[in-house]
Write a structure and sequence with these properties.
Largest sheet of chain C: 8 strands, mixed
Number of domains of chain C: 1
Structural class of chain C: alpha/beta
Bound molecules: thiamine diphosphate, iron/sulfur cluster, magnesium ion
Strand order of the largest sheet of chain C: 2-1-3-4-6-5-8-7
Number of domains of chain A: 3
CATH architecture of chain C: 3-Layer(aba) Sandwich
Distance between the termini of chain A: 33 Å
Distance between the termini of chain C: 67 Å
Shape of chain C: globular
Structural class of chain A: alpha/beta
Helix content of chain A: 25-40%
Number of helices of chain C: 9
CATH class of chain C: Alpha Beta
CATH architecture of the largest domain in chain A: 3-Layer(aba) Sandwich
Radius of gyration of chain A: 26 Å
CATH superfamily of the largest domain in chain A: Pyruvate-ferredoxin oxidoreductase, PFOR, domain III
CATH topology of the largest domain in chain A: Pyruvate-ferredoxin Oxidoreductase, domain 3
Strand content of chain A: 15-25%
Helix content of chain C: 25-40%
Oligomer: heterotetramer
Largest interface: A-B, 69 and 68 residues
Number of strands of chain C: 8
Largest sheet of chain A: 8 strands, mixed
Shape of chain A: globular
CATH superfamily of chain C: Thiamin diphosphate (ThDP)-binding fold, Pyr/PP domains
Strand content of chain C: 15-25%
Order of helices and strands of chain C: HEEHEHHEHEHEHEHEH
Strand order of the largest sheet of chain A: 7-6-5-2-4-3-16-9
Amino acid sequence: MRAQPTFNNEVSIVLCGEAGQGIQTIETVLTGTLKASGLHVFATKEFMSRIRGGSNSTSIRAATSPVRAYAERIDLCVLLDRDAYPWLRPRISPETLVIGDPAVFADVEGLLPLPLTELAQQVGEKIYANAIACGFVTALLGLEPTALEATLQQMFDSDRDVLAKNLRAARLGRERGEAAVSKKQLTCRIEADAGVTGQLFLNGSQAVGLGAIAGGCNFIGSYPMSPSTGVLQFLASYAERFGILVEQAEDEISAINMGLGSWYAGGRAMVSTSGGGFALMGEGISLAGGMESPMVIHLAQRPGPATGLPTRTEQGDLDLALYAGHGEFPRAILAPGTLEDAFDCARQAFAMADASQSPVILLTDQYLLDSSYNVPQLPIPAAPHEHRIVETAANYRRYALTESGLSPRGIPGYGRGLVCADSDEHDQAGFITERSEVRVAMVDKRLKKLALLRGEAAVPHRLFGPKNHRRLLVGWGSTRPAIEEARARVNDPETAFLYCPQVYPLTAAVQQLLLRAQRLIVVENNATAQFARLIQRETGRLADADWLQYDGLPFSVENLETRLRQEVCS
Amino acid sequence: MRAQPTFNNEVSIVLCGEAGQGIQTIETVLTGTLKASGLHVFATKEFMSRIRGGSNSTSIRAATSPVRAYAERIDLCVLLDRDAYPWLRPRISPETLVIGDPAVFADVEGLLPLPLTELAQQVGEKIYANAIACGFVTALLGLEPTALEATLQQMFDSDRDVLAKNLRAARLGRERGEAAVSKKQLTCRIEADAGVTGQLFLNGSQAVGLGAIAGGCNFIGSYPMSPSTGVLQFLASYAERFGILVEQAEDEISAINMGLGSWYAGGRAMVSTSGGGFALMGEGISLAGGMESPMVIHLAQRPGPATGLPTRTEQGDLDLALYAGHGEFPRAILAPGTLEDAFDCARQAFAMADASQSPVILLTDQYLLDSSYNVPQLPIPAAPHEHRIVETAANYRRYALTESGLSPRGIPGYGRGLVCADSDEHDQAGFITERSEVRVAMVDKRLKKLALLRGEAAVPHRLFGPKNHRRLLVGWGSTRPAIEEARARVNDPETAFLYCPQVYPLTAAVQQLLLRAQRLIVVENNATAQFARLIQRETGRLADADWLQYDGLPFSVENLETRLRQEVCS
Amino acid sequence: MTANPFIREGCDIAWCPGCGNFGILKLMSEALAELKLDPQQTVMVSGIGQAAKIPQYLQTHFFNGLHGRALPVATAIKASNPTLTVIAESGDGDMYGEGGNHFIHCIRRNPDLTNIVHNNMVYGLTKGQASPTSQRGFATPLQPAGVILEPFNPLGVAISLDASFVARAFVGHKEQTRDILQQAIRHRGYALVDLLQPCVTFNKLNSYQWFEANTRYLDPDHDPGDRSQAFTRAIEEDPLRLGVFYRKDKPVFEEQLDGFKTDKRPLYQRQVDLAELGKLVGEFT
Amino acid sequence: MTANPFIREGCDIAWCPGCGNFGILKLMSEALAELKLDPQQTVMVSGIGQAAKIPQYLQTHFFNGLHGRALPVATAIKASNPTLTVIAESGDGDMYGEGGNHFIHCIRRNPDLTNIVHNNMVYGLTKGQASPTSQRGFATPLQPAGVILEPFNPLGVAISLDASFVARAFVGHKEQTRDILQQAIRHRGYALVDLLQPCVTFNKLNSYQWFEANTRYLDPDHDPGDRSQAFTRAIEEDPLRLGVFYRKDKPVFEEQLDGFKTDKRPLYQRQVDLAELGKLVGEFT
Ligand SMILES: Cc1ncc(C[n+]2csc(CCOP(=O)(O)OP(=O)(O)O)c2C)c(N)n1
Ligand SMILES: Cc1ncc(C[n+]2csc(CCOP(=O)(O)OP(=O)(O)O)c2C)c(N)n1
Ligand code: SF4
Ligand code: SF4
Ligand SMILES: [Mg+2]
Ligand SMILES: [Mg+2]
C-alpha cells in the first residue's frame, strides 16, 4: 500500500460482496453521488449466477473527463465480504487502498480499517453497511457531503425512518473517512466538470429499451434470460406510458412467432433473448426471411456453449446470429459499442427491419447492458419513424415482384385487399407454388434486399485516429470504448481504430478500409475470432492478428493498452 | 419425334402422373426389371408436397455402364396424367418418344399412343395402367418378358388375384410395345452386364439407415419431416432386428435432448431432421458441445427459408450446420455424394462423434435420399465400432483435463464413479464454476478437439481427373455423381474434380489443393455459394467462379457438361 | 342467395378425394358467411400440414406460418389489432404435437380467438405417422408395432386449464358442426373446437364409419358450466362425446394488457410520442 | 446410523438462506437413503433454475441440461439403461413453462421415472418474473400490474392425460412429503410430484405461512383410483389440496419398445451384429 495516496484526474473504486448484500444499492448511491459532484462516472458489475452469497463486484471509475470503459486498476477496494477477496486479488496492486472490516480482514496487509459491522450495529441493521461505505468513500475523495445526502434522499424518500438511518450511516462513514484522509495524507485531485451534473446516467439495457421506443417498438413477447431480461423489463415498466404490448411468452419459440404475428398485423415488435433462447428462434428467423416480415431480435450475449456462464460476458454469438435459420435470406446485424450507439442501433434496427422487410439482429452483451456512465444526450430523432405500411387495393399482392425486391407491405384490415403471407414458397399473391421459375424469382427477390442493408439503410462505421494509418485495429460491439481509450492512451500516429456497429453486411466503405490496411488486428471478446472470420469470408482479407479474450470478462483498457504498446514497439 | 429411334448404350425414361397414381410402383417395378435384365439403373423422383393430385415424375436411366446422376435428356416419356405434361415440357426434345393415352393427349404431336384407360378397363381397374406401362416400356427396350414377370411376382406375391391381373396388364402392354417397335423400327442397343443382377439396389435413405446401423446406432428419437423421415422409418422397421430404440418425439427439441440423454447413458443415438427441425435443435447442439457429448444429427436438406419447398432439393443449410448452436465448440460436417459414401459417412459420423465427444452433422438432401441405383457392395466394416466407454473409478472426473482435450467418457451404472455432466461451465468433476481460469481451460480443452476432426478422424477427400490440373471443380454432397460424369464426358486434361465429403473442418490436404488450384470453380445447389464462402473463411482463397442452381431441382449432367465445355473453351 | 364471400375461386386443392378436409372447408365458409363476417376483417392463421392448408382455400387474410406455431402468431395478431376476427386452424399434429406448449399456454392467456383443430388422428402431410391423438395400437410406418402412447386428450387438458370454450365436433355431422363452429367463433375468448376428420389415405382405422359408430353427443342435460362434469365427459373414450363440453366467460387477454390501458387504438394506428420519450430520457439525469 | 450416502459433502450451495429448496434437498437425500437406493445407480436429471441446481448437491450421477429439457433427457436415459433409477427434478418455470410440451408428452409415454417439480410460483434464478403457476395479480418486474394469466394446473393436466401417479406436496410438511416422495420414486411409471416451495426472495406472496394456510390434505376417503374425483380435487384452488391425487398402473414406455423385444440388455452392453447387417444388406439385391 502506498504511503501517500494521490488520485490525479481519476479514481477507480471497486466494491465487492455477496449477492444480496446490496452492492447494487451502493453502486447506485455512489455513482449518483459522484455524478452529482460533477465527476464523469463509469460503472460496471460482474456477478455470479446466484441470488444470495457468492462474490459480486462493481467497478467504478470517476474522472475529470469522460470514462466509458472497464479498467483493471483499483485505487480503492471496499471489501464487504470475505469470499470476495480472492476474486479481486489479481487486480489489487501495492498502490491499492484496501478497505474492510478489521474484524474480518485481520490478515490483509495494509488494510484501511472500517469497522462496518460495528458501525452498522450502531445504526440498527447490517444493511446500513452500504451507506457507511458510501460515506467513507466520498469522504476519502473529498466530496461535499450534500451530494451523498441528496442521493440518499432521492432513493429512500418513501420511508422516513430508513432514510434517517441511511443518513446517519453515511455520516458515520464520512467521519471515519475524514479521519483516514488526514491520517493517510490522501490527496484527491479530480476536478469537477459542472456540465456533468445535468447529463444523463443510464445503463445499456436502458439505452436499448429507450432506443426501441424511439424506433416505434410497441410489442414485445419474450422469455426471461440473462442478460437480456433488463430490456424486456424496461419496456414492461413503460408499457402503459408508451402503449407497448408486453407479454412473457411460454418459451422463445412462442416469443418470436408472436413478434411475427404482430408485425403482420401492423405492430412493431421486438424480442429480447440470449444465446440459448436465440438458438431456439432460428426457425422463426427463417420464417421472417421467407415471409419477408420485418423483425427485430435483441441478442444479449453471454458465454456459451449451452448454459455456460449466465451472468458473464462474451462476444461468442456472432456466427450464430449470422447464420441462424435454415435456407437463404438477407438479414442485418448491429452491434453497438456505447450507450448512444445502443440507443441508436436499437432505433435503427426497427427502421432497417421495416425498410428491408427482413430480420435485424441487435447484438449486445452482458458487459454493455450492465455498464453505465454519463452521456450528454441520446440521439432522439426529430421525427417519428416512417409509416411504411400501404393501404391495400382490392387486387393487392403481398409479394409483388419489383425492381428492388421490396413489395409494398399491407396489413389485414387496412385497405380492401387480402394479405396472404406464406411460409411455403409462394407466388406474388402469397399462394403455395412449386414452379421452379417462381422459386428462382422469389429467391432473387429476397436476396436483392441485401443491397439495401449494405447500402442506403446501413449504420455507418467510425474511424478513430489517423486517416493515414498503417495499422488498423478493428472492433465491434461493446469493446469500442476500451479500444478507443487504449488507442488514445498509446496515441501511435500509425494506428487507427475502425469500429463497426454494423457487423453484417459489411458496407463498401468498411471493406475498403479493411483491404487497405497494412496490418489488420481484430479485437474480440471470444475464442475463435468470429468477426475476423466474417471479414475473411466477405473480403478474403486475413487478419494479421486476433486479440482475443474468453474468460467471461470484458477487455480492460490496460490489457489493450499493453498489447498495443507491444505491437507498436515490435 | 425421330423417325427411327435408336438407344445406344443408354436410355433415359421418365414417367409422370399425379400423386397417388402409383408412380412409385412403376419406378420399383421398372427399375427392378431393368436391373434383373442386367442393366445399370439410376432412378430419381421429384414430387409435389401433396398426397394426391399434382404432378410427380420419376426419371430412370438404364445403361451398359454405371449411371448415378440425374440427366435432363428424355428418350421415353410416359405420361399418365394430363397435368404432368407442362412440367416436363422443357425436357422434351424432338428426339423424345412421348407415350400416352391418345384419348387424353390428342393434341400432342407425334405421340406414341398407348390406350391406357381402355386397356386398364380390360384388366379391371385404372390402377393396372402401371403394369401396362411397364410392359410397354420393357417391350420397347427389347427386354425379355421374364424379368418383368419375375419382378411383378415378387411384388404382388401376397395376393394371387392382383398378381394375375398385373401379369395380364403387363402382357397387354408388352404386345402394344412389340407392335410399336416393329412399326417404328426402334433399335435398342444397350448391352447387359451380367454382374449387375447380383448387385445391390437401394436409395439414399436406405444407405444412410444401413450406415447408421453399421455405426452402432441403437437409439433414434425424431420428429417426422420431409425428406428426413425415410431414415427414421427405415430404422423403425428394423428396430427389433437390430435392437434399436425408436421413438417419435413430440418435437425436434425433445428429439435431440433424447439423443443426448441416450449417449449419456451409454446409447449411440442419432436424430434425423430437415432444416426447420434442425433450426430448433441449435440449443441442443450447443449442449452437446458444452457437455462434450457425442451426437449424430442427420440433416436432410430441402429448399428454405421457412417451409420452403418441402419435397424438393437444395444444399442451402451448410451455413446453418456450421454455426447452429450458441457459443464456441467443435463439430464436424459430413456430406456424402454417393450411396457408398452415404453408408460410410453415416457409419463414420458415429465413430467421429464418439471419438471426439462432439456433435457430427450428416448433411444430405432430398435428391440424394430419393435417388437409387445399383452398387456392387456397401463398405461394411470388418469389425464393429470401438468400445470407447470407460469403466469409472470411484474418483472419476468427467471433464479431466488431458493433453488432447479428450476426457475418458464414463456412463452411469458402469463403474464406481459418478458421472456428472453439466450444461453450465464446469470444473473437471462436472460442477458449476465461474472461475475465469477454469473457464479458459475448458474452452481450450473443447476447442482442441477440432484437431482430431481435422486430422486423424477425418473422412478423406477424393480427387478425380489429372493430378496436374490447372482448373479445379469443387463439390460436396449429392452433386458428386453429376460433376463426376460431366467431367468425365468433357475429359479436359487440365480439369480435375475435388470432392469433399467432409465439408468441415477442412483437412490440410484439401486446403492445399484449394490453395494450389489456378482456377477454382465451386459447384453448389444453392443461391449464395455457401461452401465457397466456407473455403474463403477457412483459407482466404476466393473461388473464381460459383456454379449455382437453386430452383429446387438437382444439377443435371448436361447442365454441368455445358458449363464445363464453355469454361474449357473460353 | 348471394355468393358466399368466403369462397376462394379457382383453387387447386391439394387434398385427396374423399378427405374430411373438404367438408370442413365447406362448413367453415358457410359458418363464416352466416355469421356475416367480413373477409377483409378475418384472419386465418395456420401451421403446416394438410389441415393447415385450409386458409389457402378461403377468401380471407392469412398467415400460413410454421408447423406448430399458429397460436402465438394468432394471439399476437389479435392483440395487435383487436378489431380483427382471428381463427387459428391446423391439424392435430401441429396443434397438439409440435405446438403443444403453445396450446396449453394460449389457453391460460385466453385471447379472443377460435382454435380449430382438424383431428384426423394421424400425420397426413408427412404420410401417415402417429399423431398425438392416434389410438393405441394404430400401426404406421414409424410405429410398425402400433402406437404405445396414451392418446392426447385435448378436451381434458383444455378443461383442466379452465379454457373458456371447449367443444368437439365431427365433420360428418354438418348441421351440428356448423353450429358448434359458429358458437366458437362468436364466443368471446379462447374457443377450442377439436374437429374429428377422417384421413382416407393414411388412417384406415378412424374412418367415417368409425367416427359415426364411436361418437355420441353430450346428453341434452349436460351443463357446460360444470367443470367436473365436463371433465368426466371429456375422458370418456367409447364413445367419444361431441358437443360443447365447457364454457366460462372470462376476461380476454388483449383487453388486460397495460399497453391498451390508455390507448385503445390498434398498433398500426400508433406513432411513438417523441415528446414523451424526451421526457422519459430526461428522467435519467 | 450410517452416514447418508446421498449427501454430497462440501458443496457451496447457491440458494438463499431460508429458501424452501434446502428443505427439499434434505427430504430428497433422506427419501433416497431410506429407499436404500444406490447412488451409483441413481441419475438426477435437471434443467436450469434454482431448483435445477439440486443435483449438484446430491451424491448421485447427474445430467444438468438445458432449461426446460429434463424430461426428454430422463426418458432417454431410462430407456437406454432401464436398470437405473431416474429422477427428473426442476422448477415450475422449467417444467411447466419452457418444458411444457415435454411435460404433456412425457406423461403420455409413461416412462418409469419420477418427476419432481419445485413449485415456488415464480422464476427464481432470473429474479422474480411470473412462472406458469403464479397466482393472478402477482406483481413482478415483468408483470408490474400483476399476472393476468390463468395459473397452470399441473395436476389437472396430468390427470387429463391419465398420468400414472399424480401428487402434490409442501416442503413445510416433512413427514408427509418424504412419504409422498418415496411413493413417487417407488412407483413404476411416470410419477409427478408438484412440490410447493416458498421462494423467500422473490415471492413474498406465497410464503411458508401462505402455504400453511392455503393447503389441506385430501380427505382420508379420497380414492386415487377415481379419475373424475381426482380431477375435481385438482381444480380446487382454495385450499390447494395435498397428497396423492391419482394413480393407475399402466405399462411403462421403455418396456414396450421394439428395441427391447428380443434383446433386454441396456444399450451400453450392445454391439452391432455385423453378420446380421450383412444379411440385411444382401436383401437389397
Ligand atoms: C419444424 C417442423 N417439423 C416437422 C415438419 C414436418 N411436418 C409438416 S406437416 C407435419 C404433420 C402434419 O400433421 P397434422 O398437423 O396432424 O396435419 P395433417 O396433415 O394430418 O392434416 C409434419 C410433421 C415441419 N414442417 N416443421
Ligand atoms: C432457453 C432458455 N431460456 C431462458 C433461460 C433463463 N432461465 C434460466 S432459469 C429460468 C427460470 C427458472 O424458473 P424455475 O424453473 O421456476 O426455477 P426457480 O429458479 O424458480 O427454482 C430461466 C427463465 C435459459 N437458461 N434458457
Ligand atoms: S392425406 Fe389424409 S388428411 Fe391429407 S388430404 Fe389425404 S385424406 Fe386428407
Ligand atoms: S431466489 Fe427464491 S427459489 Fe431461488 S434460492 Fe432464493 S429463495 Fe430459493
Ligand atoms: Mg393430422
Ligand atoms: Mg420457480
